[in-house]
Amino acid sequence: TAHPQPNPEAGAAVKAADRAHVFHSWSAQELIDPLAVAGAEGSYFWDYDGKRYLDFTSGLVFTNIGYQHPKVVAAIQEQAARMTTFAPAFAVEARSEAARLIAERTPGDLDKIFFTNGGADAVEHAVRMARLHTGRPKVLSAYRSYHGGTQQAVNITGDPRRWPSDSGAAGVVHFWAPFLYRSRFYAETEEQECARALEHLETTIAFEGPSTIAAVVLETIPGTAGIMVPPPGYLAGVRELCDKYGIVFILDEVMAGFGRTGRWFAADHFDVVPDLMTFAKGVNSGYVPLGGVAISAEIAETFARRPYPGGLTYSGHPLACAAAVATIRAMEEEGVVENARRLGEQVVGPGLRALAERHPSVGDVRGVGMFWALELVKDRETREPLVPYNAAGEANAPMAAFASAAKSYGLWPFLNMNRTHVVPPCTVTEEELKEGLAALDAALSVADEYVAA
Ligand code: PLP
């Protein structure tokens, strides 16, 4: 199998062409310095100097099955040899089998699968389906959420990074979902926070006008915005409000789905069934771009004799679907979802809580499965974030110092504002997690230096 083979000259050539011609997302082009990656396997990747990193990011939280899983690689190769591509209007084995395997695992009656190329377009289509199904225009979504970088998805996103690209499209209204750590002036317990958030949502619905609202969109467990596990009862409460007012309930499981939380879907933790559920990333670990919307029987019925106006040239691409089939089968055969659940409970949760006791820079630890966040703060009492929202340059120095320390210890950390997320592949081993936690421990000592005296 592949192994780090130092080749700095090849790395320099990759980097030079990247600098000259690749326009990178979410970046000021001249202020970034992307690592040239030579290879990857399992939970690790390595650069052209032969330095190896333990990947606590799963790419962008998508390699749930790790890098270069041999069964998934083989399935893509076989599909390429047999039928590399075929237009979406045809019934194709890889596509129908992927849809069947997904529908069998999604909760309730979400049994029809609309395929997209990724998560953002899945969200766009879910919203379109909800608008056509209800005949209503508005969508309610949460602050502190991420739903994708295309136009409607970025409008729906509730992350401050959306400002520059948000068109301010009419019909998107944001509300505050539960987050006790930063809502403590209004609620002291999870129960109070749940009640606050549900009352706030119902008031928002009342003031916007229930008959104008097509959908409420939520990440089951918001990911990019901070891995905020909702209090028990919140999602069931949202389900009730949606039923009461005839609103379509969309759960976005693009990041939380396919084993990430230690269940097939995060919704399984809360016993809720949405009307539409979006997925991408973990469905095939991102080996070939794929996303989709799982659709309830009632909404599928709306489009039974009326055309659904929307689609994409590469919807349900055979290579992507073959990768999904192999991924889902391998996850089942190898107990990957169970691995994420067990190691999350036994290793990551206790390990991160122990780090929080030792490091004053850790303000909060939260998560489930292989889906955790450490919130870094200047002051545990005031909970002032270690860096301000959208910090860049000097203002972001504490997080940059933390990250470069982690990398020097062989750990590639996930960073978002003042947080580091611990989101390794769901196939990670106990030994790898211990290695990563030790590196985090050392890197957090660097973050501690920025804590208010
Ligand atoms: N929805 C959620 C919850 C996500 O986390 C993401 C990406 O991180 C998206 C949607 C957008 O997915 P994509 O980047 O595949 O378009």
UniProtKB/TrEMBL annotation:
Keyword Transferase on entry: yes
One Gene Ontology cellular component annotation held by this UniProt entry: cytosol
CDD domains: OAT_like
Gene3D superfamilies, sorted: Aspartate Aminotransferase, domain 1, Type I PLP-dependent aspartate aminotransferase-like (Major domain)
Keywords: Aminotransferase, Pyridoxal phosphate, Transferase
Matches recorded under InterPro entries: Aminotrans_3 (IPR005814), Aminotrans_3_PPA_site (IPR049704), PyrdxlP-dep_Trfase (IPR015424), PyrdxlP-dep_Trfase_major (IPR015421), PyrdxlP-dep_Trfase_small (IPR015422)
GO MF entry, a single one: pyridoxal phosphate binding
Keyword presence, Transferase: yes
Pfam families: Aminotran_3 (PF00202)
Recorded family membership: Belongs to the class-III pyridoxal-phosphate-dependent aminotransferase family.
PANTHER family per UniProt: AMINOTRANSFERASE (PTHR43094), AMINOTRANSFERASE CLASS-III (PTHR43094:SF1)
Name of the protein in its database record: Aspartate aminotransferase family protein
